[in-house]
Task: inverse folding
């Protein structure tokens, strides 16, 4: 493999990774905002919707953000294929937005909520079609703007920004999975917090905090021990102490172990990219 081919492959991988990050961020933020505005817990129980959608407080909904990695990668691959034809063209983000809007939302082959087929052939209540659309439209618009608007002329953010984003995403994903693992270990119903919007907002705030302190650490490259210790205090020690002080159903010393996993993964990731 010649050097130019290797450089191109690395460039393409970074592009797919970046598109994946864009998707995960816009998906989580839009989900938190619109599930609060339109009360998805009740919306998913209207009429036949209860037989079509899993409950808002189901395990699948709780760990849904984890599967957005796969969706993000698929978006990244498709955007990479069409990049020379659409994403680098004039008014690129409008074109990308319209393509996803028409093919992926309004004109889907199957009868999905909010689509023409869904309105015609399903017995889903009109509220699901109407109140479900704003989230996906806004999320797709934001995603398209990030991919083909502000970012169409470059394929990479500053390395410290990209690295900090990945560290934050590692934490968000591990927290989602860790919550399921901890619930199974201590015999708590994993769905008990699934419909709690405050839990998702807290998860977002934690991700932002990790992004901030990781960015600061990468900018200064000093006191690595202090950085990892601070991460452990935020991700493991504080939640454990808080759970015991509030007599939470999740109070368990296992939190100190489970919530250390994302820190180990961040350490491995930073070690790898610094080689």
Result:
């Amino acid at each position: 493999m010649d050097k130019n081919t290797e450089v191109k492959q690395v460039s393409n991988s970074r592009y797919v990774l970046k598109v994946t990050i864009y998707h995960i961020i816009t998906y989580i933020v839009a989900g938190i905002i619109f599930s609060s505005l339109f009360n998805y817990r009740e919306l998913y129980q209207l009429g036949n919707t209860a037989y079509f959608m899993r409950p808002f407080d189901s395990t699948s909904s709780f760990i849904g953000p984890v599967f957005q990695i796969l969706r993000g990668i698929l978006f990244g691959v498709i955007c990479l294929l069409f990049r020379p034809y659409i994403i680098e063209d004039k008014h690129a983000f409008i074109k990308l937005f319209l393509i996803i809007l028409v093919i992926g939302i309004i004109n889907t082959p199957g009868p999905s909520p909010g689509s023409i087929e869904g309105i015609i052939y399903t017995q889903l209540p009109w509220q699901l079609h109407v109140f479900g659309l704003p989230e996906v439209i806004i999320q797709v618009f934001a995603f398209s703007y990030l991919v083909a608007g502000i970012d169409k002329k470059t394929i990479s953010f500053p390395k410290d920004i990209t690295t900090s984003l990945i560290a934050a995403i590692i934490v968000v994903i591990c927290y989602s999975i860790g919550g399921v693992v901890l619930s199974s270990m201590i015999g708590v119903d994993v769905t008990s917090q699934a419909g709690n919007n405050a839990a998702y907002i807290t998860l977002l705030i934690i991700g932002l905090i990790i992004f901030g302190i990781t960015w600061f650490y990468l900018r200064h490259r000093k006191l690595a021990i202090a950085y990892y210790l601070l991460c452990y205090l935020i991700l493991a020690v504080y939640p454990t102490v808080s759970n015991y002080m509030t007599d939470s159903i999740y109070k368990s010393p296992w939190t100190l172990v489970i919530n250390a996993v994302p820190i180990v993964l961040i350490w491995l990731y930073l070690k790898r990219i610094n080689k």
In short: The chain has two domains: 3-148, 159-273. Residues 168 and 209 are 8 Å apart (CA to CA).
